[in-house]
Amino acid sequence: xxxxxxxxxxxxxxxxxxxxxxxxxxxxxxxxxxxxxxxxxxxxxxxxxxxxxxxxxxxxxxxxxxxxxxxxxxxxxxxxxxxxxxxxxxxxxxxxxxxxxxxxxxxxxxxxxxxxxxxxxx
Length: 122
Hints:
By secondary structure, this protein is an all-alpha fold. It is 60% helix and 0% strand. The termini are far apart.
């Protein structure tokens, strides 16, 4: 599998292809059923949850976290993302388009408040 340079733009398409290649090179496609991938994804979400389990509220930016904690968080977030990308690929769902559609639906369901009217002129 070809490596990714730090300058390479990361897209869902690239991640999907990298995950396909990774599975094919190891003959793991036989194990990548939607059910198995979903269960693996749930397990990874559990590992991600463990990081926050006893921390209470966490400030944005994680300013008080040690660098190794941030690295660990990045690894677990990546596991979740990669399983989600692989699951969507196996299910034939264009994850990027599905996400954009969901954002549009959410905007209709939860419209932004209208700005207040200007004060009357005197």
